[in-house]
Amino acid sequence: MKAIELPRQRNSGGKTVTAALRKRKTVRAFSGKKLSLQDLSDLLWSAFGVNRAKGPFGIAGRTAASASNSQEIDLYVALPDGTYLYEAGPHRLAPAAEGDLRALAIGRGQGEAGANAPVRLIYVADLNKLVHSAGFQEPGLHDPEVQKAYYYVDTGLIAGNVALFAAARGLGAWFHNCQKQALAGKLKLRPDQRVLFAQTVGWPGRS
Predict the structure, then answer these.
(1) SS3 state of residue 29
(2) Dihedral over Cα of 134, 126, 94, 26: its sign
(3) Which end of the chain is more exposed for a tag (fewer CB within 10 A), N or C?
(4) Residues in a beta bridge with 73
């Protein structure tokens, strides 16, 4: 596996925000049509890309907020040929695991829904980034229960970006559970990393 350099995101095209909100819905039926590299680039930038060089606390700003700008949510991108980590700064995909892990990025008992979708995003919280945030050092960053509140909310903010992007571009999106333990093993995550949820993205198919 090699790193995938993503093309620069497009800043035009698609529906307005209000039109996207009207179209936003959960889609569980997908076609097997692949997303172009440009579509994938636009999707990942919209999800949690860098949108300004200097954000809060002097750190690069992202398209979704995070606690003390810790940016503790990592996006893993499960594709047919392997799973990659989205590196927002250089805007590229770094190899993370060989093989097709899309079947693990869906909860048990959820059947074959979305099996043809070309992309599944896997949301992983990195607690080390929370504890060592360059932002405001509030006590909650070190409290396990408060940490949960932060990384669950921050994941939801990113997932909301994905849902709006999909609606604006005519794609389908589905936020769902995943096989956390199996994915953690395949991705060789550290003990202070947590697999949280996944999100399927692709062209809508027949339901």
Answers:
(1) coil
(2) negative
(3) C
(4) 125
